[in-house]
């Protein structure tokens, strides 16, 4: 869904960059691979000719990064209208599935920006309510690499989230405007450790 900013870099490479051993360009190349993508938060959306709704969002998906700073993937998220009692004729909950295409860039300090363009796989249901979150959108994320903790005897090192915060979200669908958003996103992948001091196989 709308989320933007993925800068998930291997912790060891980030450390090298901070030590002056790796350039930002080299780090961007090392991001290539597959990541799980999860996010949660809320949006304030205004459907055409209707009042503004606050919709709570939670989603999970997958994103693949190439060596050129490009991203693509998919996401499924739920949108919920927390208003109790609900406004007349308002849908309280909706599930949205769609595709993600975007870009990423990181610097030598392990932080960066991810931009994700979301396109729903099918048009949202008619009416006003949670389904109004399921529209084409563009999200910009500010991200930071979280260095993993090294544990003896571990066969795989989980690359701690590249933790991101949405800095802007906008709708590219004329039927709905996104007035504000607040959510965090995490990108994760597992790094298999090679034979060294009991690590790996």
Structure classification: mainly beta
**CATH domain fold name:** Porin
Distance between the amino and carboxyl termini: 38 Å
Write down the Rg.
19 Å
Can you count the helices? 2
List the domain count as a whole number.
Answer: 1
> What share of the residues does DSSP label as strand, in percent?
over 45%
Mean pLDDT: 78
Could you characterize what this model shows?
This protein has an eight-stranded antiparallel β-barrel. It has a two-stranded parallel ribbon with strand order 4-7. 36% of the residues are buried. The chain has a single domain, classed as Porin (Beta Barrel), CATH 2.40.160. The longest helix is centred in the N-terminal third of the chain and has 8 residues. The protein has 201 residues and is mainly beta. Strand 5 and strand 6 form a beta hairpin. It is built from two helices and ten strands. The radius of gyration is 19 Å and the shape is elongated. The N terminus and C terminus are likely disordered.
Write the layout of secondary structure elements.
Elements: H1 11-18, H2 24-30, E1 33-47, E2 53-65, E3 70-80, E4 90-91, E5 93-106, E6 111-120, E7 128-129, E8 137-145, E9 156-171, E10 176-192
Parallel strand pairs: 4-7
Antiparallel strand pairs: 1-2, 1-10, 2-3, 3-5, 5-6, 6-8, 8-9, 9-10
């Amino acid at each position: 869904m709308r989320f933007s900013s993925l800068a998930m870099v291997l912790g060891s490479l980030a450390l090298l960059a901070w030590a002056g051993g790796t350039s930002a360009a080299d780090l961007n190349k090392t991001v290539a691979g597959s990541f799980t993508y999860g996010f949660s938060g809320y949006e304030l959306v205004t459907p055409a000719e209707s009042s503004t709704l606050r919709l709570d969002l939670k989603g999970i998906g997958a994103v693949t990064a190439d060596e050129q700073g490009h991203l693509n993937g998919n996401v499924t998220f739920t949108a919920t209208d927390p208003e109790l009692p609900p406004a007349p004729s308002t849908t309280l909950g909706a599930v949205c599935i769609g595709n993600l295409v975007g870009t990423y860039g990181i610097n030598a300090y392990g932080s960066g920006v991810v931009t994700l363009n979301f396109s729903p796989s099918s048009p949202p249901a008619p009416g006003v309510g949670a389904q109004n979150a399921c529209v084409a959108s563009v999200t910009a994320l500010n991200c930071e690499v979280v260095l993993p903790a090294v544990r003896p005897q571990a066969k795989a090192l989980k690359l701690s989230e590249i933790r991101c915060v949405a800095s802007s979200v906008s709708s590219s669908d004329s039927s709905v405007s996104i007035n504000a958003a607040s959510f965090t996103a995490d990108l994760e992948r597992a790094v298999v450790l090679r034979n060294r001091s009991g690590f790996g196989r």
